[in-house]
Amino acid sequence: GNDNSGDTSIPDPTHKVTKDDGMKYVTTGHTMFTDAEIKADAAKYSDYIGERGFDYRNYGCLDGIPEAKTLFAELLEVPAEQVFVGGNSSLNMIYDALTRLMLHGAPGVEEPWCKLGKVKFICPAPGYDRHFGMLESLGIEMITVEYLADGQPDIERIEELARDPEVKGIICVPKYSNPTGVTYSREVVRRLAKMECAAPDFRIIWDNAYCVHDIYSEEKLANIFEFGQRYGTEDRILCFTSTSKITFPGSGVAAMALSPANMAQAKKLIGIQTISFDKLNQLRHVRYLQNAAH
What would the pLDDT profile of 255-268 be if each residue is shown by its tens digit? Predict the structure, then answer.
């Protein structure tokens, strides 16, 4: 044991560190630092401490640090409580979301997709090859839908396909769509949220990768969650984004926006998969990016 003298009471494990209150028993080898040394260290490295006094070097904040949730809520135009901030890859988050649907199903729907005879997805094409690769790897049949002369996806064909109970969703990049560069019109976004779907667990995989990537002029993408709330279809929307094209492609921060029901399921299942994501990277990004305008 360590026979260093001093206060030997066990610190409260729920205590959140601030620069005025150091952790008393941090040991390195056989050295025990004094409380004064810990307080000095905490003051020196207070950059690790979040706005609510939580030390982001520790576990916790499964769905992201509050500062990052606030930033992505502004970018995606949803309440912060509907934002889950994860690791560096939105593609990873999309694949995990699809896998959860395959293995566990959607909230309120008993059967997971893997127990169904056939699962189909609508894929506006040309589209993002990595989306198609994910669907293929999960055994999901892809139904391509072409773009019309005005550059918009054929929404009437999409609505028609959604009446098939085997069609479980659509995957798309709605703003500056890869590779055509089209941004979905307000009417297309509205009809996607409103359309009748034979499958109660129909999902819109809304890969909003380029939500702030306006170069020559701003193209406003309608907020699909607003339409989802209007038509009572918010659960069908799974929205994803990341900073991969803003900061670093392999070291950014990814996030998803979900309805309350989908958020509850995601937190339950992801909480089994991991304890938390890289909160220090989330904090770095928040302090550099600051807000949507910046």
Answer: 999 999 999 999 99
Task: Using DSSP bridges, classify how beta strands 203-207 and 31-32 pair: parallel, antiparallel or unpaired.
Answer: unpaired
Query: What's the CA gap between 203 and 140, in Å, rounded?
Result: 13
Query: Residues 101, 103, 104, 105: what is their CA dihedral angle, to the nearest 10 degrees?
Result: 40
- Please provide residue 203's backbone torsions phi and psi, each rounded to the nearest 5 degrees: -130, 135
- pTM of the predicted protein model: 0.82
- Phi, psi (rounded to 5 degrees) for 165: -65, -20
Length of the chain as a residue count? 294
> Could you tell me where the beta strands, DSSP code E, fall in the chain?
27-28, 31-32, 83-85, 120-125, 141-146, 167-172, 203-207, 237-242, 254-257
Interval 34-57: pLDDT, tens: 777 766 766 666 677 777 778 888
Q: Look at residue 211 and give its three-state secondary structure.
A: coil
